[in-house]
Q: What sequence folds into this?
């Protein structure tokens, strides 16, 4: 059986910040929920900061999949720009 009621739903991908949609009624269709995930959190601390930037810089030019934010097979300017553009962002639920 499916749970009913109202809940908060949190979503996080491996290198993204946590996003929460609050007050979702499970008594209706939830298939249309959209989460705008922000990419660039390489160390998983739910904030994009100097640690993530250093990780991209140290891995720059390599094929380290853990730092390849856009999945093109190389850590390059696209991955660096992703961290820079999202620098300072924090995920929801971060204390």
A:
């Amino acid at each position: 059986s499916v749970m009913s009621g109202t809940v908060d739903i949190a979503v996080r991908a491996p290198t993204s910040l946590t996003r929460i949609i609050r007050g979702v009624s499970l008594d209706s269709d939830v298939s249309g929920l959209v989460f705008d995930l922000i990419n660039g959190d390489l160390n998983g601390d739910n904030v994009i900061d100097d640690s993530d930037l250093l990780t991209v810089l140290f891995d720059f030019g390599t094929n380290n999949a853990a730092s390849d934010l856009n999945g093109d097979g190389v850590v390059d300017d696209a991955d660096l720009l992703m961290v820079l553009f999202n620098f300072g962002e924090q995920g929801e639920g971060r204390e």
About this structure: The radius of gyration is 16 Å. The chain has a mean pLDDT of 92.
